[in-house]
Amino acid sequence: xxxxxxxxxxxxxxxxxxxDTGVISGALPFMKHDFNLTPTMQGIATGSVLIGxxxxxxxxxxxxxxxxxxxxxxxxxxxxxxxxxxxATAPALTIFLxxxxxxxxxxxxxxxxxxxxLAEIAAKDRRGAVVSLNQFCITLGILVSxxxxxxxxxxxxxxxxxxxxxxxPGLILFCGMLFLPESPRWLAGRGRMDEARAALARRxxxxxxxxxxxxxADLRGAGERTVPWSALFEPRGRRPLVIGVALAIFQQITxxxxxxxxxxxxxxxxxxxxxxxxxxxTAGVGLVNVIMTVVAMMLLDRAGRRALLLWGLAGMIATxxxxxxxFTAHVQGAAAAITVSSVAVYVGFFAIGLGPVFWLxxxxxxxxxxxxxxxxxxxxxxxGSNFAVTLVFPILTAALGSAPVFLxxxxxxxxxxxFTWGAVPETKxxxxxxxxxxLAGGASLGAKQRRVA
Length: 453
What we know:
Layout: H1 3-10, H2 12-22, H3 24-34, H4 39-67, H5 69-89, H6 93-121, H7 127-152, H8 158-164, H9 167-177, H10 184-189, H11 193-203, H12 208-222, H13 235-253, H14 256-269, H15 275-299, H16 305-326, H17 332-352, H18 354-362, H19 371-400, H20 402-423, H21 432-440, H22 445-452
C-alpha cells in the first residue's frame, strides 16, 4: 500500500476536525432564529462540541494505548457520522446539544490520535511533512465547511444540511481505515513483532529493514510499558508539560476560534449586508488559512518553530489592534472592509505560527516514554480553553462590545509572545532524542525508567 494513500485516508480525521468545528459558524445565524437562542445559549450551542472534545481528548491516549490506533479511529469515524446525523435532525435544542457533544468526543479523540497515528505510521524521513499535513487538512476542512455554509445559505433547512453533510467524510474515513494497517509501533509495543513488521511492509517505503531495526532499538530504549503516569510530572517531563499546556491555552485565549465559530456574526455586526455575504467573506478567510498553512509547512524546517511562533504572534497582536480599532468606526462600509481584512490577516499570522507549531511541538518535546500522555494532557488543556473562550465570547461581546473584547485578545497575545520568547526552545534540525536530552538537561527519561525497573 502506497504511503501517500495511507496518509491521505488517515488525514481525513483532521478534515473532519476542521469541518465540524468550522461548520457551526454558518449554521449559527440560522439556528439562533429556529431555537430562539440568547447570547448565552449561542455560546452553549457552539461550546457543546467543545465539552465533548475535552472529554474525548482526556481519554484518547489511554483508549488508543489499550485498543490500538486503527481500531479507535474506526470507532471515531462512526461517532462523527452518528453525531452529525443527530445534530442535523434534532427536533429540540437538547437533542442538538447531545448530537454536537458526540461530534465533540470524536473531534477530541481525532485531534490527538490522528497526528499520533500519522507520526507512527510515517517513514522517518517524511514524518515532519506527514504530521504537518494533518494541520493542512484541519484548515481545509474549515474552508470546506465555509463553502458548504455559503452554498446552502439560501436553502430550506439550511443549517440542518450544513451539519448533516459532516457524516459523508466520516463514512469515507471508516471505509478507508478498514484497509489501513495498525500502527507498527503500537503492535511492537505489545510484543506483536511479526504483525508490526507486516504492518511496515504493508505501508511500504524505501528502506523497511532499516526502519524495522530502528523501531526495535527505540522500543528497547523507551521502556514505555514500565513508565507510570507520575513520570510526566517529574523534572524531565515537567518543562515540556509546562510548555505544551501553556501553548495549548495560548492558542485558544488569543481568540482564533471566536473567529472560526463566529466570523459571519462578527462581519454582520461590522456592517456586511446579509448572512450569506458574511459567510462568503468567512470562506475567503478560510482560504487564507489554508494558503498560509501551506506556507508554514514549507517554512517549519527552514525558519524554525520558534521563529514562526514569534513572528506569528507579533502579527496577531498588530491585526487584533487594527480589528479593535475597526469596530470603533462609524462608517459601516469602511468598518466592514477593515474588519474583513484584519480578520484575514490575523488568521494568516495564526496559520504560520500558533496553528501548526503547537501541534508539531507537542509531538516533539515530550520524552518518548510519556509522549502519548503528554500530548493528551496538552490536548485537554487546548479543548478546555477553547470551550471557555467560546462560551464567554458572545456574552462579553454583548456586555462590552466587540472592540474591548479584541483588545483583550491582543493583550493575551502579548503574554503568549513573552512566554514564547522566554520558554519555548527551537527544535528545528534536532532528533527527538536530542530534544529530550536538551529539555531534561541530562539523561533521558527512558534511561531513568530502565534503571528503576
